[in-house]
Every structure is written in C-alpha cells, then in structure tokens.
Design brief:
The structure is a homodimer. By secondary structure, chain A is an alpha/beta fold. Helix content of chain A is about 45%, strand content about 15%. In chain A, the strands form 2 sheets. Chain A has a 6-stranded parallel beta sheet, sandwiched between helices. Chain A has a 4-stranded parallel beta sheet with strand order 6-5-7-8, with helices on both faces. In chain A, α10 links the parallel β7 and β8. In chain A, about 50% of the residues are buried. Chains A and B meet through α2, α8 and α9 of A and α2, α8 and α9 of B.
C-alpha cells in the first residue's frame, strides 16, 4: 500500500491525482482532521504529529508514505528522512510535495533525473502557502538549487484554509481575503508567470483566484499550478527509478480512508471532493517518543 | 491551584477576570494551542482532548479545573462530571463557562442559590458561538431550565476564531463575516436585548461587533455580554458554598502558563492579551485511555 497523509481532507486532491496516474496500486489515506489545520502550528508540533501519522501508516502496512500536506512536507520531511528513518525504519520511504512542485516551478520535466542539466526556469514565480510552509522557506531552499536564476515571490495566506473549511469559496468576504494575499503577488514587477497553490486546500479557491487574476492588468497570462498532478507525474518516474519499492507495494487497487475525527463528517467532505462515495474509519494515532 | 483550561490562548480573557476577582489563589493556565481550535471538531475529539487536559491539570496539583473553553464546556463537561470524576477522581471538581453565562442570561444574580425562585428573564437573548458549541445545544438546554420564558436565538460563527487568530480584528473582510452571522440575529423580531459572546476569542472582535450593532435600527440598545466577569462573579459565590474546596486551593498568588505548542509564540499572544509579561512552558498531554 501507498500511504497518503494530510492534516485533513485537502490531501484528497493529491490522492485523486495519484490514483488517476497510478490506479493499480493500493492506497491508504490518513487525514489528521482532529488536529487540522497544521499551517499555523510550530515546527515541533508539526514534526511530532507527522511522525505519529507516518509511524501509524508504516504499521498499517505502507512501505512508502507520501506527505500530501505542504506544511508537513516543509517542516517535518527532511528531519524524518535524515534522522527518523535511518534510526528506526531503514526499509521505508517518505516523499513530500515540496520537491516535486519546486521541480515543476524550476521547469524540470518529470522524467529529468536528479542532477540533470536540463534548462532551468528564469523569470518570476510565486508560491502561496500557509504561514508554516512559507516560514520554513522550503520552496526557496529547493529552488535555489534547482533554478538559481528564477526569482521567487512567497506569500503566506493565513485565512484561506479556514475559508475553505467553512465552505466560503466565493462572495465579497472571501474575495477580500483572496485579494489581500494576491495583491502583493500582483505587485511584483514583472508579474510572476506562474503561481503555485502550495496547500492542498487552495485548489478549491482556484475559480475565485483565477477571476481575480484575470481582472488584474496582465494577470490573465499568469498560469496557476496545483500540486496533485505535478506530484503524480513525478511519482511515476520515481517508481521507475525504484523498482524494488514498487515491487513491495500492493497492486489490488484497494482504497482505504482513515481520519482522526468523525468518520461521517470526513466521508461527506471526501465525497464532495472526490465525487465518489467512500467509507471512512476513525483511528487514534499513538504517541511516538 | 485552580487549573484553567482552554483550547488556546483565548481563555486568558477568563483567567484575567478570575484573577481580578480572586487574586489570592494560585492559578495554572493550560492552552492546547497545538490542537486549537476545537470549535469545528467532533464531540469525541473534544471530549478526548479535554479529558487529557483535565487529567494533566489534576496531576499538576489542581483540585479544581475551570473549562474556560465554551466548546469544551458544551461538549465534554457533563460527561466528565457524571462519568469520569466519580469513577476516577471523586475528590476533584470541574466547572465550565456555559452554566454561569446561562445564569446571567436568565437574569439570575451571581449570589442566587441553586433552585432559587428569583425572577427569571423574559424577552429575547442571543448566543453566538462556535459550530461545536451551538450544535451541542447546551445553552438552550440550560436556559430551558433556568428561564423557560426567555426566547433564545443561537448563531454559529465558524470564521470568527480564525479571524482573531489571524489578527483580522477589523477591515472590510472581517466586517463581511461579522455581518454574515450578526444579520440573522438582528433579523429576530423583536431584537434580542442581550447578545452573549460565547467563545473566549470573540471579545477581541467586540469593538467591530458593537459598531455593526450600533448601525442597525434598534441595535444600539443591544447589550453585549462577555463571559469572563460572569464566570468570575459566580466562582466567588461557588467558593463561598464550597469552603472545603476553597481550603484545598493554594493561596500564594502564583501564576503558571502552559501550552502544547511553541511557548514563545504563546507568551507573545498572552502578553498582548493580558498586558503583562509572562513566561510560558511547553508540555505534552499524555493520552488517557
């Protein structure tokens, strides 16, 4: 099984893209809805919660876990990969969503090998994320290596996740807080050519974001990138480079949905987002010392 | 020590009122910032988290714990009092903020004894709270006993806590979401005479709420009630009726501040809210089976 972890239900947008590109594998989704959102929490809290979730998915039979949550990828992935796995789980792997999205912003095609000398993006790109993702500076650090001549505009958008969670996807109040964080991006001279929605909740705001960009001078030319497909495309090539891991993942096409809060509430959100009925199961994540 | 628990830092408004009325006691405040806000979480999650916090404060030396969080008071207090305490902690007490606020809405003076026949409020009152507090129907249940002729308007305000957490205390976007939840209250005919801010975060929005009420026809006459003083006034009389508990509480004037997330972040919020410098300590709440 491939484990897919997110702080809540937003990561289902990533799961959906993974399933579309790699439908044969088994997937187990875990949303930590009882402690969502992670975006404003400290590094320590995000690391601890993510470690608990990853250990849970390992124990549930997932040799590979994808952190579909940007905040978890930005604040916990590196430490998990460099310290936790070698010490406790040398045979497991964890992948995040920051690196694949940064590669796409850098103009690297999905099939580019690590260390490739493919032409790198220049110009301006923007990354919109939670306070935690932006504070981690993860996108800047990745892009400094991948495309040093790309100018990066980063913008934290603290209220966007609560707006999505409250179902406020348009209207004057939502537009106010969309403009509040899009205006500084549009003030960049020259305009960014691409804007990355670096939070799994943000694609639900995409129609309203698109409308605001289209109304701004030159804004219609700005491309909006979501992470789901970028991550899925790169997982395909990662699998090809790691046949030993691919061989360990079940291929029965099974799908499982776990949540740390009310499974009925989660299933309703999941169905609205995925368009298919699902059954969710409630779990508690044991503390990891 | 008197333990004071809230999902985050908002409960400091209650602590502040308690300290003003009963300064001689020792207080230990615990904010579960790593899992805040509780307002949208399921009954099970709120119960579990609150139980962990209460047990932690008991073990830290608090014979009495005040749940300063409305969501915790509404969703967890009754079960804690009726099942958890008798089975595991018969010598401890837990009090919430719903009952004192309901007594105030019902027109009962703080010194009224339980079962008193004092005159009860009539007319219309409104309670504004989180989705969890309103869904629990706790205020309606309390008021049906305390003031059966009082008509109650309840309104969930899902985005108000995130607005406060993001520091968005005024401006057009905030006003939009204040009006969104105040308009149904103002549509009640006749107007409510009193509006209870039944969430510890909401007092920070009070100036903006007052402005909107004042602009509405007849709205200037509406009284806004906050919980801090109501709870403190009633704790004074509760102490007088429970001298055996009062005798067990330390009286050195000590103050302690604990948080489950970053203590620096918490201390900064606490200082802004209390106006005095404090030192906060990070703790982890052990799971309670």
């Amino acid at each position: 099984m491939i484990g897919v972890f997110d702080s809540g239900f937003g990561g289902l947008t990533v799961l959906s893209a993974l399933v579309a590109r790699l439908p044969g594998f088994d997937y187990l989704y875990l949303g930590d809805s009882a402690r969502a959102p992670y975006g404003g929490r400290s590094h320590e809290a995000v690391y601890q919660f993510t470690r608990e979730a990853v250990e849970f998915l390992f124990d549930a039979g997932c040799p590979l876990v994808i952190l579909a949550c940007n905040t978890a990828s930005a604040r916990a992935l590196r430490t998990l990969q460099q310290r936790h796995l070698p010490a406790r789980r040398p045979d497991r792997r964890i992948l995040g969503v920051v690196r694949p999205a940064a590669e796409a912003l850098a103009g690297l095609p999905p099939e580019a090998l690590p260390g490739t000398t493919a032409p790198r993006a220049t110009g301006v790109a923007a990354v919109l994320g939670t306070a935690g993702t932006i504070a981690s500076d993860s996108y800047r650090l990745e892009l400094a290596k991948l495309a040093p001549r790309l100018r990066l505009v980063q913008q934290a958008c603290p209220l966007w996740v609560p707006l999505v969670e409250a179902g406020e996807l348009d209207g004057a109040g939502t537009e106010f807080f969309l403009r509040k964080y899009l205006d500084p991006v549009l003030a960049a001279d020259p305009h960014p050519e691409r804007i990355l929605l670096a939070c799994t909740h943000y694609p639900l705001l995409r129609p309203a974001i698109r409308r605001i960009l289209d109304q701004a001078p030159g804004g219609a030319a700005i491309e909006i990138l979501e992470q789901g497909r970028l991550v899925a495309d790169r997982l395909v090539t990662w699998m090809a480079r790691h046949p030993e891991m691919a061989a360990r993942l079940g291929r029965g096409g099974a799908r499982g949905y776990l949540t740390t809060d009310d499974p009925g509430w989660f299933a309703a959100r999941a169905e609205a987002l995925l368009g298919i009925p699902i059954a969710a199961e409630a779990v508690r994540l044991p503390a990891v010392e």
